[in-house]
Amino acid sequence: MKLPDKHxxxxxxxxxxxxxxxxxxxxxxxxxxxxxxxxxxxxDFCATAALSRxxxxxxxxxxxxxxxxxPDVLALARPHPRVRLLCADIxxxxxxxxxxxxxxxxxxxxxxxxxxxxxxxxxRSRLGRAGSFICDIYGGSDAYSTGRIRQRVxxxxxxxxxxxxxxxxxxxxTADPLSGRVVNAMHFQIDLAKADATxxxxxxxxxxxxxxxxxxxxxxxxxxxxxxGFARVDAYHRTPDAIDQDGRPHVAPIxxxxxxxxxxxxxxxxxxx
Length: 273
Description:
CATH class of the largest domain: Alpha Beta
CATH architecture of the largest domain: 3-Layer(aba) Sandwich
CATH superfamily of the largest domain: Vaccinia Virus protein VP39
Number of domains: 2
Radius of gyration: 19 Å
Helix content: 10-25%
Number of strands: 13
Shape: globular
Strand order of the largest sheet: 3-2-1-4-5-13-10
């Protein structure tokens, strides 16, 4: 059995598209977002567009426009009849959407504030009156600490050879609080239950992904969104406040900083109205 490539491992270890799609819809609804059938998601910095496919899984009339500048990564995206893949700079995406999402801290790819505000203003121009722009960010007491987080990741049947174990390592390699710049890396390790044809029982992907980011604070992102034309900005936890009997998440904005743990990972939602 062929082992998964690094992009598949990324989806397995660093993403939960079904959960995130449901949370995005809940956050859009919380602000009186579009209730009509078939809302359209814009997924910027989409990579393999896993979130877009999950969004379309919420309903038969849901649609998505997934944008990334890397044609090689987009070529790995599994096709979906209601997901439009667009290989372009994010500032070239013009199609109107109901919600724009930037996941996995990709907003930190924009290193300069002027570029950040310009992008946010462009995103705002694609949204209607009840639209939302939602991105995630991390921060808190250890935001500029270096080190590694190692975790075992469970996989479903057919993903890895029987008995194989997958380990994911997130590393913050460098961090400079004066400039706000951080370098992060992702590593993967697969341990097989028995040796493969080459005699190996362990495969390690070191530096599978390396990121050079400007770690924006929630306050900086909020100010930039307001300058770009959003009416207000709401903050949310990465997990729902409640789940109803039908499995739908319900969320409410964070009202007080005391609600945040010392180290946090949150969503910020810019609202057009």
